[in-house]
Amino acid sequence: MYSYYANIYYKSLHLNWHLVLHTLFFIVKGINSAPPELTFILNKQNASRVVPIWIGEGDVLNSAIAWIYPLVNDEKDLPHIVSNYLPATNNAYNCNFAKSKSCSKKWETGEWKTAEFDVHSFKPIVDTRWENFPTYLTSNLTKDFSVRVDIPSVFEIGISVRAAKNVEVLVCEGWHPERFPCYYVSIGGPDNKQSFLRKYKNGIPTKFSVDDPKLAKYKHEIGVLSEELWKTFSLSLNANGTFKLRECVTNVTILDYSDKSALNPINVIVRSKNQNALWKLHKNEYLFTTKPNIARFGPELHPYGSQLCVALYVSICKYCTLRFFTVQNGKNETLREIVGDNDSDELLWKEIKLIRSNVFDDTLQIYTETYYVDKADHQNGFWAIDDVRVCSENEIRISKLILNDMAFNDFDASHITCEILKNPKWRPVPRVSSPLTDVVCNSSTATSIRMYLNSPSEDTTHQQYSIIQYEGNDICHNTDASNKEQNIQRVKSQGYLIGKGNHIDIPTLVPYTLYNIHFWNIIDDSKRFCQMHTIPTEVPTKEEIPKDIKMTITDTANIIEWNEPKCTVKYGPIVYQVHVKNQNNSNSSILYLETDTRTKYKFDNLQPFTNYTVEIDTARNFKAFQFNTSYIATIYNFTTKAGVAPKVNNLELYSINERSASIRFELPPYCKGLPKIVQVRWCHPLFLSGCLSDLQNLTKCKLWDSKYCIEINNLVKGGEYVFNVSIKNQDTFIFSEEASINGKAVQRVPGKPSGLIYNTIKGKNYGSPCNLNISWEHPYDQNGTITLFEVFLEETSYNFAADTSKTIHEILKVDKQSYQKRYSCVINYVSYDTPYKISVRAVNDDYKGEFESVQIKTESEETYSDPTPEFVSCTNETITFKLPKLEAGLNSSMLIVIVQDYNNSKTHILDDIDKLEMFGEKYKLCNEFGESWVAKNLLLSSGEPPLMVVGDRSVSYVPQLQKNVTNKPLKPDTEYCFTFAFVDQEENIDRFDVYHYKHLYTQRNSMAEAQDDVAGESNNVAIYVVPMLCIILLVGCGVWFLRRFFIKKRTEEHIYESMPFDDYIPDAVSNESYDTLVHN
Fold it and tell me: Which positions, given as ranges, span the membrane (predicted)?
């Protein structure tokens, strides 16, 4: 690859520089406020041999640069001009679309065609394409009318000329001006200060008369033409017959004439009498389309290096857009998008570059998309491209003037210079450059190389111009021919660089790479070659850190290994530091530390089933570890395998009877694994095998969260046993050492309950008795079987020792040893403001346990507050309630509101309501029918009770449903029932209270209708109200006397006909496993 590109490089740039010997140079730069970057060199070999050179860079590349030399008498004496871009990229992709070029056919597609003869082909051009137009010489010695160009009848043509004065332009309807009608244009005139237009319908005369009419004329203040400058004019004739002559650089209109009987010209002919003149007639060929389309942009491109750079000229209409893109992995990636100038109707050319970095494909296809800015269907669309070439992002242009020795044998150095057409007022100033003596590749970093140029003179007026070509070498030498893997970044790290001055930096290189560097000094044609390495990166790259870590783990060891990074991603030497640390101990130090270039390490003496962190530090050298800098840490976690479990702790036989035993124990703090199986062996002298055994999954105790329990059945009554317990970790095969405890299979006295607490449940109405909710914990030292709990509530207001009339005895049965952490029961009809003693004990068939007691006093009835929400008002869509105050001792309460109508046809209760624990059964709602929904969730707090509106469209979150509900509006004139559920928590016990408000109506839509109904029915109201009030009064008195009778009877007899909590809400007792309480 290197030899191929090097051959292109040297062939394209070698411009006969071997003629330069003992040369005197004049380097010229602009003196205006922003001088163009143009260097002019007069290479004077001897008294009769001069080689002029100019070098352009920067913004000056947007303009044509013309040579200015003495005018010659014969075309054969015209100098030969050789121009090129440096670095040279003579790529087969380049094309200027000239008719003579074969590349044009490769670029033409269905919609893109080559234009060579249309209104746009002749327009003035002063960019770099101007230099490619042929130069014509006219004088008294040249054949008359020989310099001509074919044109369309409506045209605009650019004409550039160098002359002292008086040149002529003929626009004719035929090839011979003396035989066909013509427009005659004189530029400059005899005094070089006048221009005029004449029209000859019968052809121009052999001799002109001063009496010939001038259709238009112009008087110049200064000379319009010059031998030392190229002047460019625009000559045009439009469809309306307007004939114009305009000076392009100054944009001054010289002639402007409207011809009502305009000619239909086909030729433009130029000549100059009595002096020599140089001409350039602008005719440009380009590629264009007039329709929106997508097409390939030329043939496939073979980029050099990793930098894509394509330069071209574009011209589009004001409402047009031209997009360049590539297709990568099935996706369009835009390179550049050009949008037309909406403020200009004139089609202008401008140079653009398509640039993209990090291009690693060997071939690349570029596409174009043409479309209108607003995607509308416009007419007369126009998109054009010209002079496409592969470029460099930073490049220069160089031109050499090869003079005819005989024609220029006695000229002075000041007679040759160069001109920027877009800035003709620029003039150069001389500078001197000395030849180069030596080039040294001095130093490098990870991404750059510095070259030093030794020159005999350090004068600041001296100038150096150098071109550097660099190419990276892949350091990976694969012996396997089938393995074509390579580092694309290194192979594609190549390019050119333009250097000035005594040192040159080559940037953006690949680290740890050997570069071939070719140096060429343009001024003295000296060439050098050197090789130099870029140094490694200071810190390893992410491709070099360990990946795909393999670990071989046992209970006490770990072998860690990984693959060494591939050569293709290696950017320097690599060393590793590996250390292991125990995760479970944040204060522990590093257990193991090894530093080496190896990729395999073994660590022993680790603890079983322990979380460890292994940190692998990657650096370029060991010094990085010593100073704790410039390395990358990669952290991995691993867990050693489980080992043999240790012996269990605190083994206890917490309960035993004639047929079964209950054992509990604790796991040791460090089990060396995840305990999964427990083995229990119970041994008896009568067993033939000595012991029986059982394997069970390790299960936590239902009653004690920190303990693990085992149940052993089928014991022999009265037998003396030794119970042995051991555990085994998951993924292991060996049980731990056994822990033992003795026990005898007999019934024992049950243990004492603990944690006895109570809370008061107030009546629903003022004057009704309160209830006590009593709860206690299961005995920690259970000892024997428990079949029931006895609960005694003894009134202690009397002074004598015992009064059975003041004691309530309740029994809570425990069926089939269904023990719970906490038990509770409710005692109804308890007096307010009365002292009591609560006692609870455990009982089995043989023994009664010890009492757990507590002294209490019930609350005063004066603290009673009505818990029922109070109706306030209603509208046709809402009903407002006033909520009750919180009970004493409560900080907050949650309220859930259910709404139901009385529609008998709907019997399905909403699923959301079924999900609520307090409404799981339909009898807790107002009705078992009707449309139902959850309307609101509200958190009540202490303070003044708030008003609550049902139907106000508010949104609230219901935790039990885990979603938001909307308080949707009610229907007008509709009957509703409301269910209010209060969820309170007293001393860690949840209490649910449910209240209903039935037969509430919303208002009608029209208040006027409601008023009419009231007025119409008011006469009938009195007939019903008075009797109803009397009936209610009699019923109330009867209820009061009955209540007094039942209270008195209970006080005297202490006997219940029914269970005291049968008429209470079903959820008042939270223990679902006990039987109905039995009253003594």
Answer: 1021-1042
Q: Identify the sign of the CA torsion 888, 894, 895, 898.
A: negative
Helix ranges, 542-678 (H): 622-626
| Phi, psi dihedrals of residue 391, rounded to the nearest 5° | -125, -175
DSSP secondary structure letters along 357-405: S----S-B-EEEEEEETT----SS--EEEEEEEE--SS-EEEEEEE--T
- Output b/e per residue, 543-558; b: 16+ Cβ within 10 A: ebbbeeeeeeeebeeb
Q: CATH: 3.40.50.720, 2.60.120.200, 2.60.40.10, 3.10.20.590. Which one for 101-116+286-392?
A: 2.60.120.200
- Amino acid, single-letter form, for residue 43: N
Whether the domain at 437-476+492-534 and the domain at 870-1002 fall into the same CATH topology: yes
Positive or negative, the CA dihedral 906, 910, 914, 917 is negative
- How far apart are the C-alpha atoms of 968 and 965, rounded to whole Å? 9
Level-2 CATH architecture, domain 437-476+492-534: Sandwich (2.60)
Cα 167–Cα 171–Cα 172 angle in degrees, nearest 5: 130
**pTM above 0.70?**
no
Handedness of CA 368, 372, 374, 377 (dihedral sign): negative
Averaged pLDDT for residues 342-354: 84
Whole-number Cα distances in Å, 747 to 312, 740, 813, 819: 105, 21, 18, 17
Degrees to nearest 5, angle at CA 43 with 38 and 45: 180
Ranking 496-510, 634-648, 846-860 by mean pLDDT, the lowest is: 496-510
What integer is the mean pLDDT of 406-428? Answer: 73
Q: Is the peptide bond before 959 cis (omega within 30 degrees of 0)?
A: no
CA gap 93, 73 in Å, rounded: 39
Tokens 């005694």 -> residue:
792
Looking at the domain 134-281, which fold is it?
Jelly Rolls (2.60.120)
CATH architecture under which domain 649-745 falls:
Sandwich (2.60)
Assign domain 754-858 to its CATH architecture: Sandwich (2.60)
Close Cβ partners of 1039 (under 8 Å, ≥ 6 residues apart): none
Structure token digits, residue 394: 């930073």
Query: What amino acid is encoded at 139 in this protein?
Result: S
Residue in this structure with the two tokens 């409560």, named with its chain if needed? 890
Q: What does the pLDDT look like over 208-267, one tens digit per residue? A: 888 889 999 999 989 999 998 999 999 999 999 999 999 998 899 999 999 999 999 999
Options 2.30.30, 3.40.50, 1.10.1660, 2.60.40; CATH for 870-1002 is: 2.60.40
Rounded distance between C-alpha atoms, residue 938 and residue 957, angstroms = 9
Backbone angles phi, psi at 230, to 5 degrees: -85, 130
Q: How many CA atoms lie within 13 A of 331 on its CB side?
A: 2
Rg (CA), the chain: 54
Residues 143, 145, 151, 155, Cα dihedral to 10°: 130
Level-2 CATH architecture, domain 550-640? Sandwich (2.60)
Q: How far apart are CA 793 and CA 567, in angstroms?
A: 88
720-729/675-683 β-pairing: antiparallel
